[in-house]
Amino acid sequence: MSVNEGAAWAPGRERQLITVARNVSTRYLAIAAETVAGVVMLPFNLHHLGAAEYGLWMLLGSITIHFSVLDLGYGGALVKFMAQYRAHRNARALNEIASTLFFVFTAIALVAYGAAAVVAFNLDHLFRLSPEQADTGKWILLIIAVHVCMNFPFSVYGGVISGFQRYDQNNMVAIVSTVAVAIVNYVALRSGYGLITLVAATTGVRIVAYLVYRRNAYKVFPELRISPALFCRGRLKEVTGFSVYSSLIDWANKLNYQLDEVVIAAFIGSGAVAIWAPAERIISGTQRLTNQLNGVLFPTVVDSDATKQMDRLQKILLQGTRLSLVMVVPITVALVLLASPLVHAWLNDKAIATSGTVPVLQILALAVAIRVGNATGTTILKGAGQHRMLAFVNLGTGVANLVLSIALIKPFGLVGVAYGTLIPIAWSSIFILYPAACRRVGLPVREAVLHSVLPAVWPAFIVGLVLALSRQISSGTLLAVAIQAVGGSVLYLALFFVMAIGRHDRALYTAKVFELVGRRRLAAA
Predict the structure, then answer these.
(1) Are the CB atoms for 492 and 330 separated by under 8 Å?
(2) How far is CA 194 from CA 48, 116, 278, 512, 516, in A?
(3) Which of 171, 164, 170, 224 minimizes the C-alpha distance to 12?
(4) What is the pLDDT of residues 318-341, one digit of tens each?
(5) Is the separation of the CB atoms in 181 and 174 below 8 Å?
(6) DSSP line for 430-488
(7) CA distance 364 to 280
(8) What is the three-class DSSP state of 164?
(9) Going by C-beta distance under 8 Å and a sequence separation of 6 or more, which residues neighbour residue 205?
(10) Which of 27, 148, 315, 436 is the 20 to 30 Å CA partner of 266?
(11) What angle do CA 127, 253, 142 make, to 5 degrees?
């Protein structure tokens, strides 16, 4: 297929910095929108629905999340091959891959909805639900599953946009969709509608967003064609060769981080999910907020490995681990020390706030700090030829998480589930994955810890002491908690920049900041 010279291929290299900045900044805006919406709407929904109905909603939502593993790694592979053939200006290959995966995803969506229907009509046999809850839950799950299953074929359009380096368009649609869902949610509950109507209305908004993604894909790549005639078995085989390991890693991550609510509902009940959900929401937002760097590092790791630049891989591991910890450690310290006033002020529900949310939040905060701190190491393993080992370690960690959570939930309740999550993550990250990443780049573990981990960790102890003292005189309002957290973060950054790192690293970071804002001449001086 000939390629029109006017086709909207990706931006040129001269605009690469602008493209990256636009993609990253809009991604953080999308995360901020989702976080704010979650913080505002969670207590509102909990108040209007009650713990039982809200817990039922969260439980059913967590069930459908697991259907995403059925994409079999094709989602990530789609973006990879879109970018690859875009670079070659091969519109024929792009359309064959897009068409092939669209119809593969359509078949997967039909299977997924059938599975959701089976679960929906057997909720009372799978979970501790009353007959009324099971009947309500059936309709909720069938409605949510429509949105979740439509995501499979429509993700092709999002993949095309991402492959053409226009993440910003996907991000802007996500922002508008998040705001619209929050508004519809608020109006539905304030108008007196029940849970089923609420779920149907918010699902409708999300379906409309899929149509916008489709429109944007054709705008970014006008030559896009989705047709059964372009289905190609050869392309499917090509993409599958990459996706199989990506799929295994994805399955392992889902097992490791998203089964807790299912375990809680199965052994305690949906009411306990409402106690777990606030802590999980905070931790999920923290992880997304602090782990964006490593997505950007992945192609750099692949390039460095392909060109045998071992010294560059070493720098990526040291600097990436250090900066990842710098982003997550001050937030973790604040969550651990200020968990009680935060939960009480945020939820304004003493029964839930005092029944286990606080210790769960503190334990999960440690787990996410370890995971984010080790994210650069896992990125190197995935991008530098160790993806098989990473997949099996993640899978083992997930199985250990499930087994420990089930074993500890009876004697320790929700706290036991939290420790069941923390222990396997800490063990695999500290004793398996990070040492493996050090070996891969040819660095002794002791040297890597001294240069990347220690400078980012020791300021946390001073910040923790200050927050513990300030907590005694705080009013305990959300504003007071926010001021303490911001103050602690500022103190942490000052200690890190002035005392924890040396002169050379300070000069390096300063130069990069000036370069980012366009002051190259001052950075050179």
Answers:
(1) yes
(2) 9, 22, 21, 52, 49
(3) 164
(4) 988 998 899 899 999 999 999 988
(5) no
(6) IIIIHHHHHHHHT--HHHHIIIIIHHHHHHHHHHHHHHHHHHTT---SHHHHHHHHHHH
(7) 8
(8) coil
(9) 177, 180, 181, 184
(10) 148
(11) 40
Count Cβ atoms below 10 Å from residue 187 Cβ, excluding itself: 12
* pLDDT score, position 523: 43
Q: How far is CA 514 from the centre of its chain?
A: 29
Spatial CA neighbour of 42 closest among 282, 287, 300, 393 = 282
Contact 100, 81 (CB under 8 A): no
CA distances from 22 to 87, 176, 287 (A): 20, 17, 21
Q: Give the C-alpha separation, 184 to 161, whole Å.
A: 27
Q: pTM for the whole thing?
A: 0.69
Q: How far apart are the first and last CA of the chain?
A: 51
- Nearest one of 432, 329, 317 to 379, comparing CA atoms: 317
Q: What is the DSSP string of 239-278?
A: HHHHHHHHHHHHHHHHHHHS-HHHHHHHHT-HHHHHHHHH
**Structural contact between residues 226 and 99, judged by C-beta atoms closer than 8 angstroms:** yes
Amino acid at 375: A
Phi, psi of 259 (to 5 degrees): -100, -5
CA distance 348 to 359: 17
Say how far apart CA 1 and CA 99 lie, in whole Å.
15
The pLDDT value given to residue 2: 41
Alpha helix stretches (DSSP H) within 164-232: 167-190, 195-220
Tokens standing for residue 119:
């679960």
Whether 182 and 37 have beta carbons less than 8 Å apart is answered as yes
Assess whether pLDDT exceeds 70 at residue 48. Answer: yes
Q: Is 13 exposed, middle or buried (0-12, 13-18, 19+ CB in 10 A)?
A: exposed
What is the rounded distance in angstroms from the CA atom of residue 493 to the CA atom of residue 326? 8
Is 359 within 8 Å of 418 (Cβ atoms)? yes
What are φ and ψ of residue 121, in 5° steps?
-90, 5
Q: Give residue 55's pLDDT band: very low, low, confident or very high (50, 70, 90).
A: confident
List the structure tokens of 280: 């999980």
Q: Which of 90, 391, 370 is nearest to 244 (CA)?
A: 391
pLDDT tens digits along 5-20: 444 555 544 454 466 5
Q: Classify residue 88 by burial, with Cβ atoms within 10 Å: 0-12, 13-18, 19+.
A: exposed
